[in-house]
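C-alpha cells please, single chain.
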Amino acid sequence: MANVTTAQLFEEPFDADEYIERLAWRTPGGGSKGGAEAFDPKKLLEEFVNHIEELKLLDERIQRKVEKLEQQCHREAKEFAHKVQDLQRSNQVAFQHFQELDEHISYVATKVCHLGDQLEGVNTPRQRAVEAQRLMTYFNEFLDGELRSDVFNNPEKIKEAADIIQKLHLIAQELPFDRFSDVKAKIASKYHDLERQLIQEFTAAQRRGEIGRMREVAAVLLHFKGYAHCVDVYIKQCQEAHVKERLDETRNSDVEQYLKNLYDLYTRTTALAAKLSDFNLGSDKHTFLSKLIKNIFSCYLESYIDMERQYLQSRSGMILQRFYDSKNHHKRSVGTGSIQELKERIRQRTNLPLGPSIDTHGETFLSQEVVVNLLQETRHAFERCNKLSDPADLPKNAFSIFLLLVEYLCVDHIDYALEIGLSAIPSADAKNANLYFLDVVQQANTIFHLFDKQFNDHLMPLISSSPKLTECLHKKKEVIEQMEVKLDTGIDRTLNCMIGQMKHILVTEQKKTDFKPEDENNVMIQYTTACSKVCAYVSKQVKRVRRSMDGKNVDTVLTELGVRFHRLIHEHLQQFSYSSMGGMLAICDVAEYRRSAKDFRVPLVLQLFDTLHALCNLLVVAPDNLKQVCSGEQLTNLDRNLLHAFVQLRVDYRSARLARHFS
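Here you go.
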C-alpha cells in the first residue's frame, strides 16, 4: 500500500515542494489547517522517517533492475555483432561466385560471337551469290525483252519489284552503252514507271489518310531519285487539302466567311513563302514558290472579285435596309427620268418647292453608324483586293469596289437623305416651320469627311500609278458636285424659310403705333417687341448655322443670311411713318439688330447695319442738319433717292421747312 501511495506521489510532472505537501496532507495530524485531528508534529516526523526508508528501498530495487537490463543489453549486442559478421562472410562468398559466373558468361559470349562471325563469313558470300543469281535472272528477262516474273506483273508486289529495279538500275549504269544500250533503256523505263506508280500510290494513300501505307511507300521511294518529288507532292497535298477544306465548306453558304478565310490563307501562305525564300531553294526559288502558290489558289482567285462585289452589294443593301426598317420608313423611289430631271432644273433655278412638303418629324435619315459599317466593309474589301488581285487587275478591281461605295453610301444613303430633306423644307411663308435641313447638312458634311478619308487612305494607294486614278477622281468630283448642288439648294431654301419666319414675326408683332405713338412723352420701352423676338430668333439660327457648317462654309452661309436679314429689316422699316419719338425707337431697334449682326462675325453684314443705323438718324435729325448728316462718312456714298426715301418716312416731311432743307 505504501509503494502504491509512493508511486502516486511520483506522478508526472514531478515537483518536490508539491510532493512534500501532498505527503503531509495524507498523514493523519499532519495537516496545518483544519481537519478531523489537530496538528501533530511527531506523527508527521514519524511519517517522514518511514517514507524516507521506503524511498531508499525503492531506489535499491530500481537500481538492481537497471543493472539487470544493462547486462541483458550488452549480451544481445554481442550476439547481433556475431550475426553481422556471419552475414558479411556469406556475402563475400556470394560475390566471389558472381564474379566467377560473369567471367564464364563472358567467355561463352566470346565463343558465340566468334562462331557467329565464322557463320556470317560463310553465309554472306552465299547470300550475295544467291542475290546475284536472282538479279541475273531478272536481268535476262530485260535482255530478252519479256518480263515473265510475277514480281513485275503483280501490283501487290510493287515494293519487291521496286527493290529489284533499283538495284538493276545501279548495275545498268556500270555497263558499257554500246553493247547494252537497249537493256539499259528498258531498265530505266521500268525504273521511272515504278517510281511514278509509287508516287501515285503515296498520293492516293495521303488522300485516304492511310499514314501507315504512306510510311511504307516513302521508305521504298527513299532510294529512288524522285524521292524529293514525293516530298513536294506531300507538301502540295497538305496545302490543297487544308485550303480546300476551309474554303469549300463556306463558298456557297457563307460568302463573308469565305472571303475572310481566303484572305487569311493566302496572306499566311505568301508570308510563309517569303520566309522560305531565305533558304537555299535554287536559283529560281521565287518563281518556284509563286508557281506553287498559284497552283493552290488559282481556282479561287479567278472568281475572287465577282464574289467580293456580290458580297459587298448584298451586305451594303442589308445595312441600309436594316436602318430604314428601324425607322419604320419605306424608302421612296427617287425618279431619274426626264420629268424628274426637269423638276430638278426648275427647282435649282427658281428655288420653288415642286410637290408637297413632307414632315420627317426631325429625322435626317442619315446614320453615322450605317456609314461606319459601310466604310468598314469597303475597307476590308480594299484590303482583300490589294492582296488577292492580280497586279494587272488591281486598279480595275479597286475601282469597281469604289463604285459600289459611291452607289450605296453617296447615292442610296446621302443623296437619298438630301432628297428627303429637300422635300421636307417648308415654304417660305410657312408659320412656325421646323428647319431640319441644317441637321442634314451637318451630318452629310461629317459623313463626306469620312468618305474622303477612306478615298485617300485606302483607294489612292491602289490606283495612284494607273490610268484608273483619273476615272476615280472624276467620279469623286461628279459625286461631290451633285451633292453640293442639293446642299446649296436646301440651304438657300432654308434661309428663305428663316427670313419668312422673321417676316412673320414682324408682321404679327410690329404695330404702326410703335413708331408713331399717341403719347410722345410716355414711351417707356428700349426697343419694340417685334425687334426683341426677331433678334432672339436670329441668334438661335446663327448658332444653328455654326453648328451645322464648317470651314469657309460658315462665313458664306452667314453672309448670305445676314444680307437677307438686312434687306428684310430695311424693307420693313420703309413701311412705317415715324414721329420724332418713333424715329428714336426705330434707331433703338436697329441698334439691337446691329448687336445681333455682330454674332455673324461678318464685316459686310455689320457694315450694312451700320449704314442702316445711320439712315435711321435721318428720321430724327433736325431739319437744319439734314444736309450735314447726309454728307457724313456713312451716307455720303449712298444714292440720294435712298436718302430721300428715308426722309419721306418722317411725319413732318410735308412741312415746307423740311422739304426746303432736303431739296
